[in-house]
Amino acid sequence: MHGAGHNLSCQLQNCGRFTEGAGRCAGGEQCEQMWALLKALAARLRFMSPDRRQDLLSCKFADIQEHKHEKLVQHLQATVKKTIELKSELSGLACLL
What we know:
Blueprint: H1 8-14, H2 30-38, H3 42-46, H4 50-96
């Protein structure tokens, strides 16, 4: 949802940034980001039957989800590695005190 383009009551009700339990996304532009990923399919989807359109969209959404999961795993692994390194550095500094 393009939150900045709506009035306050609409933002509070519909914008992901204000939805309890929703993850934070830079700028609150979740829908625009999803449409940007689907934009390349628009020309093909226009001339497909409803069944084929649904199949293609389902495959694309599954691909997007898999990509996000891979990135999440990479991010968590990097965060754990950095945390271990920082903990090691801090324990070394504690010995100096």
